[in-house]
Amino acid sequence: MPAGIFAILASFTSPETIRMNPQSMLWMLPLAAAIAVIYKAIKVSKIVPLRFIRETALLFGSIILFIIAAAVMLCLVAYLATE
Amino acid sequence: MSEGSNENNYLRLGIIAAIGWLVPGGGYWLLGEYKRSIIVFCTIILTFCIGIYVGSIGVIDPVQAKPWFAAQMLNSPLVAILGETTKSGEYLSYGRPNEIGQLYTSISGLLNLLCIINSVYLGHTRKIRNSGD
Fold it and tell me: What would the pLDDT profile of A4-43 be if each residue is shown by its tens digit?
């Protein structure tokens, strides 16, 4: 079993091509989802599938909204500072 | 609680932490929290795999990126085997893919640390509740 897992992992030997463009920001989505899932898995006392999914989705949405708000604020500050 | 009972409890908590480190979510499994365990296992393994898919196994670099490697080691001690493979510098990763790969693999390690701490806490509070202290 570990040999099989390591064989699969060892096949991941060349990096993906990720350009410096706005689309690359989408890579934050899976990470935010992972954080939301783990946080909720730790936080809830009993895991009920539907409630768990709803609460995780809500947290995921909150994280994304906050990041967007922070990005807009930073863009605004950069615009005001450079204009 | 007697001294012997305390020692047993520390040993039990140590085992929960060690299993939780060896296999993400393993600590919860020992406590009978199977759903939680499966969720944690899948999420952490998937996040880690996305990281090494994006940046290649070169993102696990125990020579040039020691702080990142420390966080990556929190996923499982098995990461050290990957570290041994990449130590030679054969698998290079630079730029954006390297950054994203390191972020994913390190954050999954830190999330696993959170789960280890939580499973130990859960085991401890259950022991207290059961013993009535």
Answer: 776 666 667 777 788 888 888 889 999 999 999 999 999 9
Residue range A34-79, pLDDT digits in tens: 999 999 999 998 999 999 999 999 999 999 999 999 999 999 999 9
Residue B36: exposure state from Cβ atoms within 10 A (0-12, 13-18, ≥19): buried
Residues of A whose CB is below 8 A from B97: 15-18
Q: Could you report the predicted ipTM of this complex, rounded to two decimals?
A: 0.87
List Cα–Cα distances, A15 to A12, B50, B56, B68, B70, in angstroms: 8, 11, 5, 17, 21
Which chain B residue is nearest to residue A44, measuring alpha carbons?
Answer: B36
Give yes or no for a contact between B88 and B130, defined as CB atoms under 8 angstroms apart. no
Q: How many CB pairs under 8 A join A and B?
A: 79
Q: Does A16 contact B at CB distance below 8 Å?
A: yes
